[in-house]
Design goal:
6-stranded mixed sheet, 13 helices, alpha/beta, Heat Shock Protein 90, Rossmann fold, 18 strands
Length: about 450
């Protein structure tokens, strides 16, 4: 995957192109580099040639790298694209990543080692994206097939007393165990039992009264008494004048899904405990996986007002105030620089993966600086936590290039709370480095 690469280099600066080629040669990377100097050439070549990676300069003579990137993605190009930026173009890098860039690399960092690391990261990310895309296509096809073959369908007449069933399909009889003859002329409530939740029954009744569509999940019972979970969608059918004529009910037997969800909740709880203990063990207690806000460390004395993090700014400001806090409590320059690195990575993660975030800086007289970064993104799945936090490069696509593992290497303590409502990272650095555990 990483040898004999075919690279499209889009840069009008001959010196920069030479630096890229030298970096490849110094690291012994076997690669065929096709060089172009404009957006127009790049979009033409990428359509006719097959490349493993595109290295794209932001400033081109006939347009910006952003417009070139958008044109490539709109043309269906899925090749990983790495943006080459100059120092201080952090906001441009975020815009490019949102538009579809795989990663970015400042030109000042084009050393053979960092350049090779960036290429590997981009290619791995692209491979993972392709796997996800293929899996999603397969799932969509399977879901359509299941929906067409297994959902029960009933049609009810609201103009007859008690809104009886006037039609049911074979899947309905298979799911419920009632024959067509036994179901026709009856209201659907005969499927309910004592354990059917009255709250959702009332929701359904209110929607029927208001002639609105609704979806509820009910505990129903088959003819043999066996319970099953019914994901029921009821839709009103109207004539040309808008008058209600019928209701169509689509029943999906989601019993297996509900059972799986219950089992998944138990499994997630076990995984969370296992991963928490794993982190505590392999990081020597440096990383703590939190289950709730109460597990996070209490804030110290606020050093500066909260800072909004976005693609417009805030990351550099947060790093700056974290450094000021370090100096205020007597933390030396090396440990201060380490904290700045960790804070920058955590803040960039929030911006890239959740668009915005909030940064806080706290400190106290005992010599500790505490930085808290919060975002409202989708969080990290429990199953992905070990790789995302302990495996170098796993979570770096679209970030500053180091990943969560770099945070663990540069600070004394990290508390991580991640869930569907967002992620909170609390980073702490003491005046004195912790003593070795041996």
């Amino acid at each position: 995957m990483f040898d004999n690469l075919r690279i499209l280099l889009v840069d009008d600066d001959a010196a920069d192109r030479a630096a890229v080629n030298q970096s490849l040669q110094r690291h012994g990377r076997k690669a065929s580099v096709h060089e172009v100097v404009s957006c127009r050439e790049a979009t033409e070549v990428i359509r006719s040639g097959r490349f493993d990676c595109v290295l794209l300069d932001y400033d081109l003579p006939d347009g910006s790298g952003l417009s070139c990137l958008i044109a490539m993605r709109e043309a269906g190009v899925t090749t990983p694209i790495v943006l080459l930026t100059r120092d201080g173009e952090e906001d441009l890098a975020v815009d490019m990543i949102k538009a579809g860039a795989t990663d970015y690399l400042p030109k000042s960092d084009i050393t053979s080692r960092l350049f090779d690391h960036c290429l590997r990261r981009a290619l791995r990310f692209h491979e993972a994206q392709e796997q996800v895309r293929l899996t999603q296509e397969e799932l969509r096809l399977r879901d359509r097939a299941i929906a067409a073959a297994s959902n029960g369908i009933v049609i009810c007449d609201p103009h007859q007393p008690d809104c009886p069933i006037i039609y049911c399909n074979p899947a309905f009889t298979s799911i419920t165990g009632y024959s067509r003859k036994e179901a026709l002329g009856r209201n659907c409530r005969f499927l309910q039992g004592e354990d059917t939740d009255d709250q959702y029954v009332q929701v359904m009744r209110d929607c029927l009264h208001d002639e609105k569509e609704c979806q509820v999940i009910l505990r129903n019972h088959r003819k043999d008494g066996k319970p099953w979970w019914n994901e029921l969608t009821i839709s009103p059918v109207r004539d040309a004048s808008g008058a209600l004529t019928h209701y169509v009910g689509v029943m999906a037997n989601i019993t297996e899904r509900r059972d799986a969800e219950d089992a998944l909740k138990q499994n997630v709880a076990r995984q969370h405990a296992l991963v928490r203990d794993l982190f505590a063990s392999v990081t020597g207690g440096k990383l703590t996986l939190c289950h709730s806000e109460e597990d996070l460390p209490a804030p110290l004395v606020r050093f500066i007002d909260p800072i909004l993090l976005s693609d417009k700014g805030g990351i550099r400001e947060l790093r700056h105030h974290a450094a000021r806090a370090c100096r205020s409590v007597g933390i030396n320059d090396i440990r201060c620089d380490d904290l700045e690195t960790a804070v920058g990575e955590a803040a960039m993660n929030a911006v890239v993966h959740a668009s915005t975030g909030i940064g806080h800086v706290f400190a106290d007289d005992s010599g500790t600086v505490q930085v808290r970064v919060e975002d409202s993104g989708r969080g990290i799945a429990v199953a992905d936590l070990p790789n995302a936090t302990l495996r170098a490069g796993y979570s770096t696509a679209g970030t500053m290039g180091h990943g969560f593992k770099m945070i663990l290497k540069t600070v004394d303590r990290v508390h991580l709370l991640t869930r569907g409502a967002g992620t909170t990272v609390v980073i702490e650095q003491d005046r004195d480095a912790p003593s070795p555990g041996w």
